[in-house]
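Give me the fold.
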Amino acid sequence: MKKRAVTILLCLALALFSILRAYAEGEATAETAEKAPGAVQGIVPAGVSDFDVPCAAAILVDEDSGTVLYEKNADEQRPIASITKVMTLLLTFQALESGKISLEDFVPVSEHAYSMGGSQIWLEPGEQMTLNDMLKAICVSSANDAAVAVAEYVGGSEPAFVQQMNETAEQLGMSATHFENACGLDQEGHLSSARDVATMSREVLLHHTEVRDYCSIWTDTLRDGATQLVNTNKLLKSYNGITGLKTGTTSKAGVCISASAERDGLRLIAVVMGAASGKERFQAATALLDYGFANYENVTAELPEDAPKTLPVERGTTDAVTLQYDAPQQCLMPKGQGESLQLTVELPESLQAPVTAGTQVGTVHLASAEQELQTFSITAAQDVEALSFGYCFGLLAQSLALCDQ
């Protein structure tokens, strides 16, 4: 047994010497790979120059990628009326997701909530209604009293809730937005922009899809049938694929809408601000959505079948590292150009240890008709440590311990 142990020891020592010698030689010539995030380039052409919609400001955005397909005075600060409630809904759904509140909770009505004017469901002070019913009132009838009652319930008070609204707007990069209330009634300094409205609309649609269920209700009732709800978004009855989202009208804001729709896997958000009438609001939203669906499509982007799942690692504590591809599964393309879409993978033959998780190790190139459109990162999914004297002698000690057993 002792001779066998000595033989194993000598073999491991020789192997260790060879590994460390190769590692030292490699260190002298290895180049450090810098993490270079892929440059994102626009993949859609500019909008038709003579296309216009009847409103003061507008924007059309692809919901999945955030790509802007059309804009008109999109950064101009304006009152946004009840589109404000998109942010109120976002914070409420976030509180639901965190378990802070539930749909079965009874929301009390304060004197302050009762005092709201404009569209409402005539809540009475001291009345209670489930959060689920309050959300219906907000999404379907744009009820100001319900919005403020929910804001008070979620935030503790409307001012505290409004502070959360502004903090969230800042986190989302809504630089043109400042909220003064939770329902959208005209108030000095209560402003946003078409671009910012699209940003918060996209956030709630992407991460809280239940909002579609509420916003797509055409009619419903509350208080055991005593209160009738009819959706303010008439596109639900006139536009194929409409999924939401929120209308708004005040004397300062004019007539507004953030409209969302989906057809054949393409999801769009059209924001219209400052239209002269409800008719023009819906005409503008319809024109924007029609323009998007007529000119763009979401195309499945498939990696090559031989795209490696792992990459060899030299002089590492493991032989290979798992790869993480950041390329999207779908890409927004001008209609008719999707057939030429190609993804190609660029990777080295191997990596040099150590490797840190998240480090870019390769690139996916997205091209159409031989023109590169975008690049995406391929990153290491886990750490791989470099071989060291300590690691190798640890393996040696384990081997010797097994021999002694």
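The radius of gyration is 29 Å.
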